[in-house]
Amino acid sequence: MAPRYDAVIVGAGFGGIGAGIELDRLGLSNFVILEREADLGGTWHVNRYPGLAVDIASVTYSYSFEPNPYWSRLFAPGAELKKYADHVADKYGLRRRMRFGVRVDGARWDEALQQWEIALAGNETVTARYLVTATGFLSQPYTPPFPGIDTFAGRIVHTTAWPDDLDLTGRRAAVIGTGATAVQLVPELAREVAELTVFQRTPIWVVPKVDLAIPAAVQKLFAAVPATQKAARAVNSGLLEALMVVGVLHFRQAKPLNRAVGVLAKAHLRAQVRDKRVREQLTPDYDFGCKRPTFSNHYFTVFNRPNVRLETESIDRIEPDAVVTTDGRRTEIDTLVLATGFNLWDVNFPAFEVIGRDGVDLGKWWRDNRFQAYEGITMPKFPNLVSLNSPYAYSGLSYFTTIEAQMKHMGRLFGEMLRRGARTFEVTGAANDRFLAEVTERLDDSVFYGGDCATARSYYFNPHGEAALLRPNSTIGTHRQAARFPLDDYTFDAATAARTRSA
Ligand code: NAP
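Above: inputs. Below: predicted complex with NAP.
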């Protein structure tokens, strides 16, 4: 009973695409990529709201081995990221191995057959030697259960389901939420609608975005002399690394730097918003970095416009034609935009039920114990599972540094499997415990524990109050570790490994 596939990858975003490229490199080419959505690209396929752009300079927010010389701006618009994902998937022959509109309901390790059994919606089951989950951190949209939301008579749009033909000209709209999405979207909407009310629960830190169009001559140079783009990437990645390591991870040692960024953000606010009271309302009372900061040159200025109002009173309920705040005031609207983000900790981790060895349920195990994963990628009792969106997986500010470190980890791990002729791998409990102890200790210096994050309502913190997303390492350290982790941290299929040793 050989499994149908070498591997099943769940998710056709940049993580799943990277995993596919790595598996091909290792010669494990009999894989399928299952994708819930109708097309590839993950977040860059799903999110199409006006103003969408990347927040990490594009020379860095891309695979290092697949540079794109033709980014139109320093921070490329979302559509260019989607196009880039299409290009990479086609170039590496991945699209033909993708199945779209396929929802995975669950996966179970079959101990007898030493393979994963993956249940798909519609009663289909596929089997694979390896399971790679690449379902993203920010992939389960969140709609708060506001009382009365079902009675709203106008249009409700979540930012992850933006209709391409949505015309809001002359509308009376409300945006709920002031995260990174709203910061990009609100300036676009303010130009279009007749009236806009922005409902803010927690103010967000906003720093200027130093963006500019990349002249055609520079694009040509990047294409003709790839080393120039590599150099640009190195400089930008170095800056991000310094910001991350010094400002976020070593907050206790470098408080003045963190405070200086806060001062810059407040100066930006002062320069852009005329009304003192509105400025106060827009000022965060938690430390910079507790929650994902944002970058914009236009967000604050919107609040000077006569057709835009900031509302900071809590929402009590939604009525057919209004949002009603707890002080009884009604804001009459015909369009309700939910920029309310994603549910990370309830319906993710993992994105579907995963049952490992001895019937251990991954989601329950994480919740009953602590959220944890060796090197942010594997867990004891889950043989042959590569879980890309695990606790402590995220390393660095560009997601691509995480993806490429994980590709390296896969390369070392699967390379060893192939060398031994083994059929299974499983991380040891001891290695997992050691990693968790290390990250826990290191995080103590970070802004999450050393800073004042009490009022941030940050999704970086899980229900146990632990900041379990970010790996407290330099990206150089993470990459070094991915290429050098002790192979003894894993057990390999005992019988096969013993045969190999005695041969
Ligand atoms: P988010 O950061 O989670 O923001 C959700 C917003 O909705 C918050 O302001 C939140 O308020 C508000 N909210 C949620 N429930 C609410 C309720 N019951 N009542 C009132 N307000 C409520 O989501 P996001 O803006 O979509 O961004 C998510 C992440 O996606 C970002 O952090 C970033 O990592 C990524 N992103 C990246 C880019 C980019 O790179 N260009 C762009 C957009 C998003 P509280 O803060 O009070 O909870």
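The CA atoms of residues 98 and 274 lie 51 Å apart.
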